[in-house]
Amino acid sequence: MPIQHIAQNTSLVFLRLLLFSACNKYLSRSLYPDLTNLSLEGPPGHASSEPEPSIELGPLPSPATTPLHRTTQHIPSSQKALHYAVSRILFSLSLTESCIMFLLLIFQAMDLLSPRTRLHHWRYSLMFLMVSILILVPLSVSMLLMVGLQTSQGPGNRRLLGFRIGISFVPVATFLFALLQIPLPDGFVPLDMSMNVLSRLLILGTITLGLLSGFGAISNSWGFIPFLSSAKPTPTEHQITTAEYSLASIRNDLRERRATAEQQDIQGSESWLSRVGATFRPNSEYMQEIRGLEALEYQMARNLESMREFRNAAKFSVTFRGRLYRVFGRLFAVYCIIRTINSLANIILPTRRQASISTTYPDIISELIVYILSLFYTRQDIQIEDIMRISRQLSLVFVGIIILTSIRLVLRGVTRALRVTSRRLGASLMLLILAQLMGIYLLSTLVQMRASFPPPPKLPDGNDNTEAINLFSTIPAYEVFGSLFDWSFLLAAGVSAFVRWGAQKMNEAGEV
């Protein structure tokens, strides 16, 4: 038996190494370059690294929003290697342990490996994910922001390095203190400290997933709803070309005016202080004119980008892939709408949740499947339990798709909010945030899978000791979280719909 345990533990360690290596290759070849490009994406009107269709006007000027003497941030190569290695290792370890936990559940259902080995590795993976979500990832983000943005290696900055590292622990300690203040549901008594922290983390994770799901549901269904999406005529190539000429003319004018203003400052006979005062004087008509042209250039760039997107979407919609995408998009939009209505019904009629208290999210797919099958078969021929199990897993897949579609916008918004100017630092921060969201989603998903997976087989000697070796016994049941997901889902969906509706009305008013 000891040899068997050693062989099983060795195989799981080897499996971890394989998953870690595969994740590193995936990061270096695909995900990290994509995040690097995502960190560069800015609002329309800003410079872009991607080439755009050229117009025969000679060399076009740079965007007016780009300063003439732009100061770039030069981060030492050692710091670049540091934040890249930290983010890569943490993400790879989190993804590896997530895969191990899912594999252990499959092994439990198939009665592979010994119960003690499964439970030991399960607890290790669960503890690592909790530590990574609560401490390692927030601390790494804080340190990268405090230390990674250091642009020089002078003696003064070196003396401040210890102070910067010490300050990095303050946000993490604040986050942990706030987490411990989250109240637990009534009637729930955690067995130990780890269950106490995990329950609070699941509450936070459920709210986070609900917000992401509500935001993603509106984003995915808005363009496919006829009475919400505005029917605009498809711009022609001539209209796009005219807009490009107009934008190039505005940028040429702005470049000339900025050059004239800079030349006047250089050739002026005033003192340095008077020149600075004249440049930044708020009532200067010349500077007011430049600011007005900058605002006009920004709005024209947004309109041009919108016209290009509409034109490309119209070309894609007439292809076979475009038509197929629109069919699936409409079906998915219907699902998002039904999800929203069902969440509202769960709050208004809480008895529906008590009827299916083992599900994580409102189980609407099972009801639809049973209704469709009842048209062809009798109720006695339909295995309700099997349909409920499959439908819960399909619900998880659909919710995961909704969340994935909204993560890209969330990551881009985080990098803009942090005002990160380094490509690699922005990609590293997004990778760390993605690792934290992935861990939170996994832990919340495990609660749902607790009702989908069959219990582990009984021991050969006939002792009914499954509760002690069941992996799901180490996580709380979902019924203790109530309707947190529904409230956060509806809140995010309502705010997102209101913002999109308001932006659409403002754009329509601006085009009149």
Automatic annotation (TrEMBL):
Chief place of localization: membrane
Localisation per UniProt entry: Membrane
Signal peptide: 1-30
Phylogenetic classification of the source organism: Eukaryota, Fungi, Dikarya, Basidiomycota, Agaricomycotina
Residue intervals passing through the bilayer: 89-110, 122-149, 161-182, 202-225, 327-349, 390-411, 423-443
Ranges for region Disordered: 42-72
Entry protein name: Abscisic acid G-protein coupled receptor-like domain-containing protein
Record key words, sorted: Membrane, Signal, Transmembrane, Transmembrane helix
Composition-biased stretches (Polar residues): 63-72
Organism: Amanita thiersii Skay4041
InterPro entries the record matches: ABA_GPCR_dom (IPR025969), Golgi_pH-regulator_cons_dom (IPR022535), GPHR/GTG (IPR015672)
Record domain Golgi pH regulator conserved: where: 195-259
